[in-house]
């Protein structure tokens, strides 16, 4: 379950409601099928988002952890996914340090602020390389990862999971049903079949 962080912050410059409202939504929807995880309410660190809030990367990292900490005690029986934020690779490493012992061994962790860099897979590789360099045990989830990024064998290797709305956008633009689960399945199958570039260097 996504928190809608990007659109919320873009529209409001932050979260207009407390974590209690999001927690209520999680607890409501967890009974509808099998909810694997609910993503924490993070603050993206792209330069465009910093301009929206008027804050700096360190502020967004701090706020991301504060929202995560506030959400945890309000949720039962659903995994709350922490999100690593930054823009430069070393900022993600610093955010890992800020989380401290909250990040247990093998945790499933989101990697934020990568969706706008799909056109440059090497930039995403650099971020993932930095994270794996200090915490190779973490299972990483990429937000908004598109087809171009999956041409990289390293990205495919280092991400345990990813989400994308590219399938829905394409269906809508081509006059098909943008909410049809079969569109999503075809997109996933396309990713599985596509060739990717292997790298000799990690």
UniProtKB/TrEMBL annotation:
InterPro entries per record: DpdA
Residue span, DeoxyPurine in DNA protein A domain: 1-174
Keywords: Plasmid
Any one Pfam family match given in the protein's UniProt record, by short name: DpdA
Name under which the protein is recorded: DeoxyPurine in DNA protein A domain-containing protein
Source organism per UniProt: Methylocapsa polymorpha
């Amino acid at each position: 379950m996504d928190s809608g962080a990007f659109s919320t912050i873009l529209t409001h410059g932050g979260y207009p409601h407390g974590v209690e409202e999001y927690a209520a939504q999680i607890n409501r929807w967890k009974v509808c099928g099998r909810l694997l995880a609910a993503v924490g309410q993070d603050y993206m660190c792209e330069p465009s988002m910093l301009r929206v809030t008027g804050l700096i990367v360190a502020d967004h990292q701090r706020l991301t952890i504060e929202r995560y900490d506030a959400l945890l005690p309000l949720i039962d029986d659903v995994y709350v996914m922490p999100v690593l934020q930054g823009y430069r690779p070393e900022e993600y490493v610093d955010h890992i340090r800020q989380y401290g012992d909250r990040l247990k061994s093998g945790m499933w962790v989101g990697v934020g602020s990568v969706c706008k860099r799909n056109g440059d897979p090497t930039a995403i590789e650099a971020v993932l390389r930095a994270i794996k360099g200090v915490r190779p045990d973490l299972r990483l989830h990429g937000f908004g990862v598109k087809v171009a990024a999956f041409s990289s064998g390293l990205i495919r290797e280092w991400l345990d999971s990813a989400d994308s709305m590219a399938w829905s956008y394409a269906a809508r633009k081509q006059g098909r049903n943008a909410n049809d689960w079969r569109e999503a399945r075809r997109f996933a199958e396309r990713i599985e079949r596509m060739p990717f570039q292997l790298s000799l260097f990690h």
